[in-house]
Amino acid sequence: MTEHLLDIRVERKTFGATTVLQNIHLQLQPREAVSLLGPSGCGKSTLLRIVAGLEKDYQGELRNRAGEVAFVFQEPRLMPWLTVEQNIGFSADNDYDKAWVAQLIEEVGLGGFAQALPKALSGGMAQRVAIARGLYSRPHVLLLDEPFSAVDAFTRMKLQDLLLQLAERHAIALLLVTHDVDEALYLSDRVLVMDNRPSSIRQELAVQLTHPRDRRDPLLAQLKALSLTELQRAHVI
Ligand SMILES: Nc1ncnc2c1ncn2[C@@H]1O[C@H](COP(=O)(O)OP(=O)(O)O)[C@@H](O)[C@H]1O
Ligand SMILES: [Mg+2]
Prior knowledge:
Strand content: 15-25%
Strand order of the largest sheet: 5-6-7-3-8-9
Radius of gyration: 18 Å
Bound molecules: adenosine-5'-diphosphate, magnesium ion
């Protein structure tokens, strides 16, 4: 039997009288990329928070063989008074692995910006810092909650390619929430479509394409059509 990196079972998650998540069973294999697509408010962020261990009040079970799990949010959430380097190392007093931070700065394409403050960065650059900060703890799983939705379309494509490169290089599995069907299909091995509250996983689409992928691949277009049909059935669109 395959050893899952993460085995997530949420039988039920409620906020007050509202059941948000129900019967969610989700496994993540080492190095696998999985995307979650679903309507606003269906509980995608809540599910990621459960996986990250930030939300403990639910019925279910989380098995984590991944050890370190890191989170990248929609907004970069950088400390404005810390430099790029300090933000990645989480420390104002330079008490971090300088060589590793320097390597990460190069890997995310921010060479020369180690001493810059966040206000000097574009949105895309700030999100590169957030990704580097996520990698600092050498996680085996990176959780990403709509990480690229605040950047323009071309920057987004570059960040998607960067994310794939980094995941490959560091053998990291990805669990990503997005509203962008193209993004989900381009990045993922599996795309999971969630439905409205109480939400569960309605449909799973396998994207059996090797990397590097071509955004113009006709199979991606076919899978997009399928995804849109599912999203319509789930009344997401
Ligand atoms: N801390 C909270 N307290 C009460 N309700 C919450 C809390 N967090 C989220 N919710 C509610 O749970 C539902 C799912 O939220 P969320 O996980 O943020 O959805 P999504 O990320 O899919 O848009 C929403 O109706 C939201 O209002
Ligand atoms: Mg959300």
